[in-house]
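Interim report, section 4.2 (structural modelling).
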Amino acid sequence: MEHHLVLRVVARIIIPLIMLFALYVQFHGDYGPGGGFQAGVIFASSFILYGIIFGIAKLRQVIHPSFVRSSAAFGVLIYVGVGIVTILNGGEFLNYNVLSQSAEAGQHIGIMIIEFGVGLTVASTMIILFFAFAKP
Amino acid sequence: MTAIEILSGILVILGSLSIIVGLLGVYRMPDFFTRLHAASVIDTLGTILILFGLILYAGLNIVSIKLLLILIFILITTPTAAHALAKSALHGKLKPMTDDD
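Predicted structure of the assembly:
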């Protein structure tokens, strides 16, 4: 991969744009098409592109596999944590209405946090899959 | 219909025509590299014309800015993809067709 100059230069331009677009899809998911799953896959694809262009060893330096594994678990923890908080606030499991003073604001906050957890888990799982199948 | 709407319609039709030309090229061209060249016409000329037509139709608002960003993204990525395809084909010992064949 040392001599692929065009690919390396374009990847350096494209990777931040892909991450920005993933964040847009993530946090615009309330109002438009998008959400945690799609944003997670897009975000992971930027890391996978980096790994394909610059090599797996460099990707391991950028984002360590143990960190990815723990962040995948952390996303599930966020999801379940919101459910536990709603139970503690006096509602059912994942009943967002009790998260805030008004039911509408509670819905917004709940969906935002849930989707963040979903996105984190999906992105981490995609990167774990890439690490598992890629040649070292 | 205003002049801008007519102009945007003409641009979209021209873009669709260039996509048809590119598809014909992919179908009729003899070897890999010439087919790749025809497919690049779809990626660049067709999308430029169609997206410019849509930008003109949308006017100056958030939709046209998003379309412009899509256009810039496509103009960066698709030539790179064609380059990577051609380079990997050459790397895989695929010879371009010449007049001698």
